Amino acid sequence: MVSIFLAASVFGQSEGETDALSMIYKDQDLVTPTRSPKPISQVGENVTVIDAEEIEAINAHTLADVLYHVTGVQVDVRGGPGSSTNVLIQGSDPRHVRVMVDGVTINNLTDNFPDIGAFPIQQIERIEIIKGPASSTWGSSLGGIINIITKSPDPEHKIGGSVSAAIGERTTGDYRADMYGTAGSFAYYIFGGGITSDGLTANTGTGKGDFYTKLQWQPARQTHLQLTVGYDKGSRGDGQAPLQNLSLRDSFEYFFASPSFTYDITDSLNIEVAARVSTKRNRQYVSALDSGAELQSLISNELSAGGSAKLNWRTGMNNILVGADYDNGAVDSAGILDGRQSQVRWAIFSNDTLALGDLSVTPGIRYDHTSTNGDFVSPSIGLTYTLFGKTIFRGAFSRGFNTPPIGDTYGNGISSNPNPNLKVEEVRSYSLGVETAVLKDLWLKVTGFLHDIRDVITPEVLSPATFTYVNGGKQRRQGVEAELRTAPLFHTSLLAGYTFIDATDRVTGQEIAGIPRYSVDLGIDYNDNDSLRGALRGHYIWWNGDPDPTVTGKYTAMIWDMNLAKKFFDNEHLALEAFFTAHNIFNGAQYTDNRFPNPQRWFEGGLKCRF
Questions:
Q1: Which of 198, 269, 437, 520 could form a disulfide with 265 if both were Cys (CB 3.0 to 4.6 A apart)?
Q2: 315: exposed, middle or buried (Cβ count in 10 Å: 0-12, 13-18, 19+)
Q3: How many CB atoms lie within 10 A of CB 332?
Q4: CA 313, 35, 104, 338 torsion: positive or negative?
Q5: Pairing of the two strands 554-555 and 144-150
Q6: What is the predicted pLDDT for the residue at 413?
Q7: Does residue 386 register a pLDDT over 50?
Q8: Rounded CA separation 18/438 (Å)
Q9: Residue 241 parent element (H or E)
Q10: Is the pLDDT of residue 510 over 70?
């Protein structure tokens, strides 16, 4: 787990003073919460950045494994590797979290579900997590943004890559290979892999395969063309309900492609144009648990196409961005009114980061239009101030929204009725934080947040057997995050994170069930920078469970995982590494629903070869 890092070069510190910062800072890294690269010291929002090195340290299988230990992010695990998993940011609804990969949104149009349990991680260069609405930049994202930037070809090496295989208990396996190379002005990165598992819990078995490639061509110094393509296909069990004699399962097939063109008009002015297309095919099965007979199945097909254009001007004190987005999506499903519904979205947006010495100010605004749920204007402003070169104060205000899923607006199932008058959900969000390395060998970050939400989508009962979704709720989510990390001592560093969330229904005044009350993360990292590394992670979350007595959870224990890796051979041409993971060492229980218990203790190990 790594959170916001500070740029020592920005602060002008000496080498001896940067010990507590360099443990989490990579010198050339810039972040893109405003869709234009800039130093983290100029970001007013609460942002966490995770890089490929950290992902490898915990032997992660999918995006869900990586997000599990991020302070302020809550992950509802429902099985072993590859299982269907919900993600929340600061207690948001899962549909409020927008997940993007190389500019393409991976959330479903039907229910806005981001399938983080299916998303592979080998091709990820870094993940930028914006906690709180980022609507003035990205549009619909009431809870936050998980922005995935994938690996690019390495210009320093003509050819390279890796092959790895991991096997574990209960037929669990993870097999991967990637390769990158350059040839003149052309470069490529290719990844392929797959996961198999019996799920480690009842009826959560998984089998899936993945492919990803990024192709780049730079015919001239100022011209850059790129094509990214991703494909995931698999099937898995989604648990069972013994009391109802039901077994649940789904299959999925995801594809996306995004060509882009970047042209540097001058050294400080560039334009980028990108297109995108994605398809999703999901099938959900309900079967009788005792006989296996199929009782119901629902197929959903989605097609989305669109693009973006951005003009970025960096000069003097300003980093100005002006852009536009367009997307046209359609859903075909028997559970949708008339069997097919479409949604057109377009937006224009602008922001500017004004750097005034130790002070930076980032105003932003965006106008969004949807053909299904109306229009929305999202203003924002972020502030940062650097004090004595070792402390940054951050503050941000934003007005954001979330577009209802097509399934909420036009759902026409056995018990649901459509509501074409459904509006977007709205939030006013405030955050204030401090990040400091003023204490020698210690990095500390504390952030307070407040999210006031209105027009919350809630079900309205029409009859004993039917309901529809309406804008009727008001909620407030407020709380605090705290994180710390120590500089390495004898190659060992400590880390900790804590999140407290107070979620209140502003209509009834009652605490909202099902939203985590607090979470704790603890860890120890060891890395001798030569041949041995290890990571011990502990995670505890109080889920404040559902009041329904038939849906009981159990979350009385902290879940501990241990990861070890040993290099046996390493030179400039070839490296061989063995790795081992012990999951849930103490057999703890941590789940929100008795139909989806977390896996108990299990082990896996494998080999990785780099060339």
A1: 269
A2: exposed
A3: 16
A4: negative
A5: unpaired
A6: 82
A7: yes
A8: 10
A9: strand 223-241
A10: yes
Q: Is 395 helix (H, G, I), strand (E, B) or coil?
A: strand
Residue 21 has pLDDT above 90, yes or no: no
pLDDT of residue 29: 56
Dihedrals phi, psi of 598, to nearest 5 degrees: -75, 155
- Percentage of the chain exceeding pLDDT 90: 82
| Kind of pairing between the strands at 416-417 and 466-486 | parallel
In angstroms, rounded to a whole number, what is the distance separating the alpha carbons of residues 520 and 500? 9
Give the Cα separation of 22 and 486 in Å (integer). 11
Question: Per-residue pLDDT tens for 324-342?
Answer: 999 999 999 999 999 999 9
Strands 602-610 and 159-168: antiparallel
Q: What is the pLDDT of residue 545?
A: 81
Separation CA 347–CA 307 (nearest Å): 11
CA distances in angstroms from 246 to 237, 252, 290, 310, 439, listed in the order given: 12, 20, 8, 49, 56
Q: How far is CA 334 from CA 148, 246, 294, 462, in A?
A: 32, 21, 17, 21
For the record, the structure tokens of 292 come out as: 């296996």
Phi, psi of 138 (to 5 degrees): -110, -15
Structure tokens at 478: 């407020």
Question: Which DSSP string corresponds to 527-546?
Answer: E-SSSEEEEEEEEEEE----
How far separated are the first and last CA of the chain, in Å rounded? 27
Determine the pLDDT at residue 464.
87
User: Which secondary structure element, helix H or strand E, spans residue 407, and what is its range?
Assistant: helix 406-410
Contact 89, 108 (CB under 8 A): no
Token digits of residue 398: 């934003």
Mean pLDDT of the chain: 92
Check pLDDT > 60 for residue 100. Answer: yes
> What pLDDT shows up at residue 30?
73
**Pairing outcome for strands 186-197 and 172-183:** antiparallel
Q: Bridge partners of 442?
A: 486
Domains along the sequence of the chain with CATH: 8-610 (2.40.170.20)
Per-residue model confidence (pLDDT) at position 474 = 96
Contact 392, 436 (CB under 8 A): yes
Give the integer Cα–Cα distance in Å for 67 and 62: 9
Whole-angstrom Cα distance, residue 377 to residue 145?
A: 18
**Of 59, 53, 57, nearest in space to 26 by CA:** 53
Question: How does residue 2 score in pLDDT terms, banded at 50, 70 and 90?
Answer: very low
Q: Length of the chain, please?
A: 611
Is the CB of residue 148 less than 8 Å from the CB of residue 116?
no
Give the single-character DSSP code of 57. H
Q: What's the whole-number mean pLDDT along residues 200-218?
A: 95
For the chain, the 3-state helix, strand and coil shares in percent, each to the nearest 5, are: 5, 60, 30
15 pLDDT more than 90: no
Distance (Å, rounded) from C-alpha 530 to C-alpha 515? 43
CA distance 347 to 367: 5
The partner residues of 318 in beta bridges, in order of sequence, read 315, 354
pLDDT surpassing 50 at residue 219: yes
Tokens of 359: 């002070």
218-240 as b/e: b if 16+ CB within 10 A? beeeeebbbebbbbbbbbbbbbb
pTM above 0.85, yes or no: yes
Q: What torsion, rounded to 10 degrees, do the Cα atoms 181, 176, 71, 592 define?
A: 150
Q: At 59, is the secondary structure helix, strand, or coil?
A: coil
